C-alpha cells in the first residue's frame, strides 16, 4: 500500500511560488465559483465550459511565465505541473507548430467527433463563411486554429 500524503511528507513549493500564488488563488476562486454555478437552462456540455476555460487560462498563464517571459524557474515549473496547477499534455501541444492556440485536448481527438476529424473550432476562420458563427461543443471555443 502506498504511503498516504500528509502535510509532513509534502515538499514545500520552490522559490518564486510566493510571486504567483495570488494569481493561482484567484484562478482557484474562479474555479470554485464556476463549479457552484447553476446549471439550469444549459445543455449538459455547456455547464462545464467555464471550467474548461479557467483551466485553459491557468495553464496558459504558467506556460507564458516559463516559456515566454522566463519569470519562473525550471524547478517551480516542474513542481506546478506535478501538483496539477497546469495541464502538461496541453502545454506540450502548445510547443508544437500549428497548435499554439489550442483550447483543449478534446478538440484534436478524432474519436470524439461524428466524422473522425478534429473539432470545428480548429478550422481557420478564413475557410468559413463570413456570417457563420462557430462554437465548439465540448469546450465552447470560438476558434483556436493557429492561422487565425
TrEMBL record:
Alphabetized InterPro entries for the sequence: BUD31 (IPR001748), BUD31/G10-rel_CS (IPR018230)
Signal peptide: none
Keyword Glycoprotein: no
GO cellular component: spliceosomal complex
Major localization listed first in the record, in broad terms: nucleus
Domain of life: Eukaryota
UniProt entry keywords in alphabetical sequence: Nucleus
Example of a GO biological process term: mRNA splicing, via spliceosome
KW Oxidoreductase (keyword) present: no
Compartment(s): Nucleus
Similarity field: Belongs to the BUD31 (G10) family.
Name assigned to this protein: G10 protein
Amino acid at each position: 500500500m502506498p504511503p498516504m500524503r500528509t502535510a509532513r511528507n509534502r515538499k514545500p513549493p520552490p522559490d518564486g511560488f510566493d510571486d504567483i500564488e495570488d494569481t493561482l488563488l484567484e484562478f482557484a476562486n474562479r474555479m470554485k465559483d464556476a463549479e457552484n454555478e447553476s446549471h439550469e437552462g444549459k445543455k449538459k456540455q455547456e455547464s462545464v465550459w467555464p471550467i474548461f476555460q479557467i483551466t485553459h487560462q491557468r495553464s496558459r498563464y504558467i506556460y507564458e511565465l516559463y516559456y515566454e517571459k522566463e519569470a519562473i524557474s525550471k524547478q517551480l515549473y516542474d513542481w506546478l505541473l506535478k501538483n496539477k496547477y497546469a495541464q502538461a499534455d496541453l502545454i506540450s501541444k502548445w510547443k508544437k507548430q500549428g497548435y499554439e492556440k489550442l483550447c483543449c485536448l478534446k478538440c484534436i481527438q478524432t474519436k470524439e467527433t461524428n466524422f473522425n476529424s478534429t473539432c470545428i473550432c480548429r478550422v481557420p476562420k478564413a475557410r468559413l463563411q463570413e456570417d457563420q458563427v462557430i462554437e465548439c461543443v465540448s469546450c465552447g471555443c470560438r476558434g483556436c486554429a493557429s492561422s487565425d
